[in-house]
Design goal:
4 copies of one chain form a homotetramer. Chain A is of the alpha/beta class and about 160 residues long. The first copy, chain A, is built from 5 helices and 9 strands. In chain A, strand 7 (about 130-135) and strand 8 form a beta hairpin. In chain A, helix 1 packs parallel to helix 2. The interface of A and B includes residues 128, 129 and 140 of A. Strand 7 of chain C pairs antiparallel with strand 7 (about 130-135) of chain D, so a sheet runs across the interface.
Chain lengths: ~160, ~160, ~160, ~160
Amino acid sequence: MINNKRFIAVIGGGQCSKEEAKLAEEVGRELARQGAILVCGGLGGVMEAACKGASSQGGITIGILPGDSRQTANPYIQIPIVTGMGYARNITVVKSAQAVIAIGGNYGTLSEIAHALQSGIPVIGLNTWSLSRNGQPDDSIILAQSPAEAVNKALSLAKNR
Amino acid sequence: MINNKRFIAVIGGGQCSKEEAKLAEEVGRELARQGAILVCGGLGGVMEAACKGASSQGGITIGILPGDSRQTANPYIQIPIVTGMGYARNITVVKSAQAVIAIGGNYGTLSEIAHALQSGIPVIGLNTWSLSRNGQPDDSIILAQSPAEAVNKALSLAKNR
Amino acid sequence: MINNKRFIAVIGGGQCSKEEAKLAEEVGRELARQGAILVCGGLGGVMEAACKGASSQGGITIGILPGDSRQTANPYIQIPIVTGMGYARNITVVKSAQAVIAIGGNYGTLSEIAHALQSGIPVIGLNTWSLSRNGQPDDSIILAQSPAEAVNKALSLAKNR
Amino acid sequence: MINNKRFIAVIGGGQCSKEEAKLAEEVGRELARQGAILVCGGLGGVMEAACKGASSQGGITIGILPGDSRQTANPYIQIPIVTGMGYARNITVVKSAQAVIAIGGNYGTLSEIAHALQSGIPVIGLNTWSLSRNGQPDDSIILAQSPAEAVNKALSLAKNR
């Protein structure tokens, strides 16, 4: 692995609010400042904002794309992985990370949260889904109140899986 | 398609409580009585109980397996599909169905619910996950109080996608 | 499994010559006559011709589709499996079969032949690819001279994997 | 993309002969010298030898792993991508590259050659498979006589897909 750097996924909608984009960009910046490698689904919205932030600090960005062409990656992706597998690539996004930061998000993001939790990969949430099962709250998503807190929690929980 | 029969997925844990198994078995029986084809992940727990119910009424059962061998299918699977793709097969389970009935379930089931909702496939829930997003309840999972109600809702909402 | 029936894949081009279509249709008919279940990629060309043949004899046909919609299946598919995984579904086509019959075919068919041989699944060839490795012929593809011979070889070599 | 660097896949057996390892290591070295990024399946044999060569020259190596853990990567992989999809990951290996160099190899390698050719990605061969279809040679695999020639051909044919 690159100098034992941590691989952290940032997940969220391919379209997002301005507020979510701001959070994502700051998460990306902070990940890069702390030397982590950013993994994401490679497209727009939260993914692009996070990559923009990471790039601004010289960070490395990996985009695991659903389609058949690297041309679909957002402009801040340095390492495009072209899966050709559609949204089945969501499972690869989270399995390639040692911790996951979820920002906002729609059902695709929820599927990634679920795949991460199924695989025992820590999930940190910023304004994202919350879950309950059979009427009981499920507290597996670790809440953060700010990008810096999300990044710190992700890095401290990241496992060498 | 077989005489325009409906394809309905039953999803839930590979291990489950007795109560969940009872619900799943009755869902399977009712699906078969109403002429639907049962799609599932092919393994034990809720999947096996549903297939047992469907088989008892002469229904057809399809198991979309994660591993490399048809020998891993539960004994009530008539059509084993061997994906070789691990839990990426979850997306195929739901995309092969016209509606999904979720019974109990862990994070794998949650990923299937999310993939279904992302694809616009109706999800009926029996004692399963509930969701909220950014603090607002998400009512996309349609609640049912009984196996019969779940099956009726699934069949009436099933779309010819 | 359905009355211990054999699952046999028929693979070949999504577009094909008239001669290939004729071979495929006869393969489909003979598989159905002998009680086998036909597995294929669900699209046109060789796949459709084989399914047409099987259907004419009351056989069961399974189509493992690359895309996101069951509407893409050829009209003779009874069990559409919607993978949502693009051509990664090729591996599922062959793993779901106990033997594979290849008719003509392009590079997609070659990938299926390779995945089958990698998994130890017998491949019978009718006017299809032949292989050599480092200058030495590889005889793993079992040649057949007619549809009936291909079906007989496939059924006798089919393993209960 | 990283400074417009080329992404070139090196494919071959997870176990290989000493001669193949020597070829692969030199291919890896030459790719790194010419500034290309090496993509592979992340495991042993040809993959490991190529990564060893690239690493010795300061090159970047990406390993697209079939399993569920980054721990399965060979020691020279800098960017492990954990697909969780078994050998369906073969399609991602080739789609993530702009050209492919095949060295020796078994059926898994053949499946990667086929997926690459299906996707229009150039394949350069060093002591690897050769193909004929319906009795006619298929010359799609571009032959090279040495690692340097293979790398030069790969880089000159690499497309910005």
